[in-house]
């Protein structure tokens, strides 16, 4: 049993102002795996005061000093990767290979990227007699979700640190362990007191206290659209900057060529990764009508091949994060059946032999883009295949959504792949599996604003000052 009852404030592990706790449930077993403290607005006030005090010195540190600290964090992070992977497995149910591999690797990747970017980042830009200086915003509130715990925390913390900001992290109640370990890593690496603070607790208490706080200058939020809207409203009275990374309903366009079956299999397997709990998941698979039979066969084979089970074993897919999330997904599967989508793999209920734990069957429907299962984010292992007539039609379907986070295009004709990708209205598009830690990540439309990852991620945490007549 884990007991993570202290918060990290002003360089110390401290008790909450008013003791209140919550149990954390292991989604694979439904058993209690540990206890965390739930903070209050009084804890936020303490952390904000510490971050404000630390800002005056941290914001003045040199590039070399910040690089030294990030290097020390990297060494500590490397020592504790196994522990981090174990925690992620336990808190949100990612299978061992994924938790210890990509989950922990994403955090390490953002740290390495922050170091690489910081080495050359132009904080000062001369334009004739004018100097444009990029300066840290100040005290930042970082509010993160449970689905990729290390990705979500590290993609905010390291750019914020590298640009000279101080911060308060509010991790999700559903995945608090890895964030606690990350705070220990930062502490061990020697982050100066008050520069990084971490308070566990509920979003409606800690998140709201940060968003409305007079002395917090910026909120970076990743999570659901309704909470993003609420944070914008809460932050409005203090005119603080708000960065939002929200949901998606991303299209995966497979072009009509000999590799279609392989692309469909890859897209289906990708959708089931992390139990479909990925904001950028390619949850609408667009294939040519003329090749639908082939696509269905490939998708069914790929979905049926996904092993589901105990995260500690060799299964490719673990449970979804919670009972509530399980129920939401079951409701969507029922909705798909009710609205006449054709179920070709998976379906309602748990996979055979799994009576405990929030396990969902890898599910594939064939449907149309007007169906609820094609319009709303399910955040579970549910894929909808939609047929298109020609490439123009594929682009039209892909863009016919309120979201605009990610997109995928697979095909052998690179000119055509590029042309299709350019017509898609989303912030991040992977062509034939492309991936890059330095590429900006963020959404068009209701998927959010701002961009994280790489040097664009630095700009999220910078004010711009024009110094006229400087030269
Ligand atoms: P949310 O319910 O939005 O929670 C995200 C975080 O916000 C949690 O830490 C939560 O605290 C906190 N929060 C809740 N209410 C708040 C409030 N009123 N003010 C401030 N903070 C508040 O999302 P989730 O269920 O964790 O994640 C699933 C959703 O996030 C999906 O829609 C998914 O698409 C989206 N998501 C998007 C991305 C990107 S990169 N665009 C990445 C991951 C997830 P608690 O501890 O109380 O939950």
UniProtKB/TrEMBL annotation:
The keyword Oxidoreductase applies. The active site is at residue 245. The keyword Oxidoreductase applies. It is an enzyme of class 1 (oxidoreductase). Residues 13-466 form the Aldehyde dehydrogenase domain. Its EC number is 1.2.1.3. Gene3D superfamilies: Aldehyde Dehydrogenase, Chain A, domain 1 (3.40.605.10), Aldehyde Dehydrogenase, Chain A, domain 2 (3.40.309.10). GO terms for molecular function: aldehyde dehydrogenase (NAD+) activity. SUPFAM superfamilies: ALDH-like. InterPro entries: Ald_DH/histidinol_DH (IPR016161), Ald_DH_C (IPR016163), Ald_DH_CS_GLU (IPR029510), Ald_DH_N (IPR016162), Aldehyde_DH_dom (IPR015590). It holds the Pfam family Aldedh. Keywords: Oxidoreductase. Belongs to the aldehyde dehydrogenase family. This is Aldehyde dehydrogenase (NAD+).
């Amino acid at each position: 049993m884990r007991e993570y009852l202290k918060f990290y404030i002003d360089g110390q592990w401290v008790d909450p102002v008013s003791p209140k706790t919550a149990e954390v449930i292991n989604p694979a077993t439904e058993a209690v795996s540990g206890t965390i403290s739930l903070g209050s607005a009084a804890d936020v006030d303490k952390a904000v005061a510490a971050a404000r005090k630390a800002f005056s010195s941290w914001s003045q540190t040199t590039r070399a000093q910040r690089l030294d600290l990030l290097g020390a964090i990297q060494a500590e992070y490397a020592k504790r990767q196994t522990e981090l992977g174990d925690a992620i497995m336990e808190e949100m149910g990612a299978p061992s290979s994924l938790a210890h591999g990509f989950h922990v690797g994403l955090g390490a990747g953002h740290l390495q990227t922050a170091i690489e970017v910081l080495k050359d980042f132009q904080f000062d830009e001369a334009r004739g007699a004018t100097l444009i200086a990029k300066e840290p915003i100040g005290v930042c509130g970082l509010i993160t979700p449970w689905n990729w715990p290390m990705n979500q925390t590290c993609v905010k913390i390291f750019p914020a640190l590298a640009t000279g900001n101080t911060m308060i992290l509010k991790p999700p109640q559903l995945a608090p362990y890895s964030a606690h370990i990350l705070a220990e890593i930062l502490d061990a690496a020697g982050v100066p007191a008050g520069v990084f603070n971490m308070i566990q607790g509920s979003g409606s208490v800690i998140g709201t206290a940060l968003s409305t706080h007079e002395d917090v200058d910026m909120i970076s939020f990743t999570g659901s659209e309704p909470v993003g809207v609420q944070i914008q409203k809460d932050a409005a009275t203090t005119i603080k900057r708000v960065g939002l990374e929200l949901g998606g309903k991303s299209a995966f366009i497979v072009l009509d060529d000999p590799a279609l079956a392989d692309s469909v299999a890859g897209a289906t397997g990708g959708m089931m990764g992390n139990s479909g709990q990925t904001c950028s998941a390619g949850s609408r698979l667009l294939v040519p009508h003329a090749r639908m039979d082939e696509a269905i066969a490939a998708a069914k084979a790929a979905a049926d091949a996904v092993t589901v089970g105990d995260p500690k074993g060799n299964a490719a897919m673990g449970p979804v994060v919670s009972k509530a999330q399980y129920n939401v997904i079951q409701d969507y599967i029922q909705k798909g059946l009710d609205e006449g989508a054709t179920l070709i793999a998976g379906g309602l209920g748990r996979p055979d032999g799994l009576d405990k734990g929030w396990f969902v069957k890898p599910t594939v429907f064939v449907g149309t883009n007007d169906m609820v299962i094609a319009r709303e984010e399910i955040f579970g292992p549910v894929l909808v295949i939609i047929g298109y007539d020609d490439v123009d039609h594929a682009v039209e379907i892909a863009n016919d959504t309120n979201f605009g986070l990610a997109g995928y295009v697979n095909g052998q004709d690179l000119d055509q792949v590029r042309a299709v990708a350019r017509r898609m209205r989303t912030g991040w598009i992977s062509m034939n599996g492309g991936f890059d830690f330095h590429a900006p990540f963020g959404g068009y439309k209701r998927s959010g604003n701002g961009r994280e990852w790489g040097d664009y991620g630095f700009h999220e945490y910078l004010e711009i000052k024009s110094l006229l007549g400087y030269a």
